[in-house]
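Weekly modeling sync, notes
Attendees: S.R. (lead), two postdocs, one rotation student

Agenda item 3: backlog of single-chain predictions. S.R. asked that every request posted to the team notebook include the full sequence so nobody has to chase files. The rotation student volunteered to paste the first one in as an example of the format we agreed on. Action items at the bottom.

Example entry:
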Amino acid sequence: MYNHPTMRLGVIGGGQLGRMLIAPARELGVAVNVLDPDPEAAAAEVADRFLVGSLTDPEALAELASWSDLLTYEIEHIDVSALQSLADRGVVIRPSARTLATIQDKLLQKRHLARHGIPVPEFLEMPSDDEPGSGADEGAHLSDAGKQIGYPCVAKARRGGYDGRGVVVCRDEAELRALPGPRLHWYLERYLADAAEPAMLVARGVRGELRLYQAFEMMFHPERNICDAVVLPAALPDAVQRRAAEIAVAAVESFETAGLFAIELFLTGDGEVLVNEIAPRPHNSGHLTIEACVTSQFEQHLRAVCGLPLGSTELLSPGAMVNLLAGGRSEGPVAISGLEEALALERVRVHLYGKRRARPGRKMGHVTALGADTNSALEAARAAADSLWIGASERV
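Predicted structure, as returned to the notebook:
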């Protein structure tokens, strides 16, 4: 028997994901308390209680826990040692602190997946800055690593990277040497030319039960290397869809914890499916489940971490989502134009995140559209996004 969560849910992080988690929580009678360092965070105005504090401050995390019966998170950049200390004292955290410790360090994540037999691109630890020997020896170590992985290669930040940040394509050894900061902040990965990037959402309940959504297809901005649009379902052959599902389930089960997981994949030109990375939370790729599926990714995450029955992942209609990124060249108070035109389009929904300041490239919202097929849905979503402008000053 399931116990109704007549509880207070503490959410670490108050961005748009936390904001969108609150609506289904209200429908289920769950109070949501939020911790974020920004007093103007997207979730601040809609949370039941809002605590301003650093996500790496053990005292702030402990205070949030004292307000709450259960903790979850909408971002990975958290002090996991503080979380583990809370878990050791009996605080329920889902997904677990140990899972987050593995996932937030992308090199540890890759090692974990490979150890569990889950296919990933070839990767290599970056040689240390302080290898023993002379500078020439250190250069040889770096040169050997570049030759082993091959050029071009991808250097990825072990921690803190998101939305294209912390990912550098290195075409030669000179670019590899030019990476900022200590080398051990990075690791290397084989570059996969022309690989498609589908994604899977998998929910795992407290009893190990699983629910999968159909694969999503992510499309990326050509210059910013940030997810620009998503369609559901992805146009994958049945065999590839089955393989993607098998890999996604194996990846999630390897962590043995409850929650919603987004598994970003690579689909190579020869049909190989590899795991790019995992997020232990709702994900940008899954926003269109709010309209396109019986159960949104946000309600599903809430159900999973609160110990409720997982919801149906049935697709109601093909759909598409387009991110709304702030335009202009300056930072400042938000100005919006074109909202009336976007709302006038049929089968289109506009989601604005309530962020009070815009800076170029910042995610300010998204639009979704449903259609008879993904092409018509994407066309409608792009038309709505093109009519909207969000930035620090009016569009001229």
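Discussion: group reviewed the output briefly. Residues 130-137 have pLDDT under 50 and may be disordered.
Action items: rotation student to repeat for the remaining queue; S.R. to check formatting next week.
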